């Protein structure tokens, strides 16, 4: 596994809070209709596109993985944190989960019909994001669908760091992120931007993209 300093910090932080995180966010999707709308649109797009394997990259304890499996998708999950993977396996024993890094996925070229990066790319330093997106584009088949969620910013630079409660993280302007995706063969087809909820501190964005 690739093992940079930021990866070590992120893995250790999520290992430490894994059980608390799983409890806090267990019902989060039920309380957020905007997330459900975009995940449902993603699931429908994958099904309409012929279906096939879908990977949740940075899956945590598997809450989004499980939601999409219940929507009829053929899911698997990958996360940097062994503790998160342990919890995901306990919660969803019928879904395959493994410990892994975004830059070196074990899926073959064009193996996936879909890919999910749900608030997971936020912990990747901007200088490493191109390598991650290159790997994502490698494993998604042409015409395949990807969905990304992240905390958003309107900073002129398009990216800014912020004080995430678990590990160092970065906010992206949706247009800046769309440009990064396009440079790596992922064309944005829909974007949902929303203001912060009462329990949040930043705006949020979700992006659907197709592998060209």
TrEMBL record:
GO terms for molecular function: methyltransferase activity. Residues 54-144 form the Methyltransferase domain. Pfam families: Methyltransf_25. It comes from the Bacteria. One of its GO terms (biological process) is methylation. Keywords: Methyltransferase, Transferase. PANTHER family: TRANS-ACONITATE 2-METHYLTRANSFERASE, TRANS-ACONITATE 2-METHYLTRANSFERASE-RELATED. This is Methyltransferase domain-containing protein. It comes from Nocardia aurantiaca.
């Amino acid at each position: 596994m690739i093992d940079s300093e930021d990866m070590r910090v992120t893995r250790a932080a999520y290992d430490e809070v894994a059980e608390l995180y799983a409890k806090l966010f267990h019902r989060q999707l039920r309380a957020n209709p905007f997330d459900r709308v975009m995940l449902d649109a993603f699931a429908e797009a994958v099904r309409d596109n012929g279906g096939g394997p879908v990977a949740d990259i940075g899956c945590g304890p598997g809450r989004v993985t499980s939601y999409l499996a219940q929507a009829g998708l053929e899911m698997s999950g990958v996360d940097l944190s062994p503790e998160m993977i342990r919890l995901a396996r306990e919660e969803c024993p019928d879904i395959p989960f493994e410990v892994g890094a975004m830059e070196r996925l074990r899926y073959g070229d064009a193996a996936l019909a879909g890919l999910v990066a749900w608030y997971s790319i936020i912990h990747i330093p901007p200088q490493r994001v191109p390598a991650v997106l290159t790997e994502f584009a490698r494993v998604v088949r042409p015409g395949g669908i990807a969905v990304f969620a992240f905390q958003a910013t309107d900073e002129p630079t398009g990216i800014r760091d912020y004080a995430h409660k678990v590990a160092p993280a970065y906010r992206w302007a949706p247009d800046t992120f769309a440009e990064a995706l396009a440079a790596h063969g992922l064309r944005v087809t829909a974007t949902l931007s929303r203001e912060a909820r009462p329990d949040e501190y930043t705006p949020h964005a979700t992006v659907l993209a197709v592998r060209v």
